[in-house]
Input
Amino acid sequence: MKKRNKKGQFKRDKDYFINCIICHKLQQVVECKKLKKFCSPQCYYAGMKGRKFSKQHCQKISLANKGKSTWIKGKRHSEKTKLKMSNTHKKIGTGKWMKNKIGEQANNWKKDEVGKGGVHFWIKKLLGKPKICEICKRKDKENYDWSNKDHKYRRNLEDWQRLCRRCHRLYDYKNNPSKKQKEWTPLEIKSLKLKTKE
Output
């Protein structure tokens, strides 16, 4: 009977190690994988890059494929299937139909039924990333956001303002009382009040 370890697994008779051809790392493997040459898929693809099949190997592949035909050879799509394929591509929004289609012209336009993330993405696409804060007028900060004034997240350009992360959080804390209890912890509220006093 084989002995078990503390986890209840069978103990190995021998420990097998392989030396990777590319990164030269030692890796412990099971007995059935002792002939491996690579430690990971990344090393495998790096090792196989640029390699070519030998002439003998190419001849074997050609002999094996002789007389075989592909499943679509001699077949053509009917007009109905072609129409179905074109309609699905138009709905998904791929290919030549989506070129230069922005806003209401796009096939996946949702109007006002879009969520917060979609509206933020829409305004970033139209007006770009903000680089200045409209409250503190600073340009040297790391993060700037698009802030919604009335917190209804509509597609109205006048309802949006450029704010730094600090001013954005302060603005949301003061002007959006419905989310105070859910999102703000007491420590965050204290730190915000201290910052406003400064």
In short: The two ends are 74 Å apart (CA to CA).
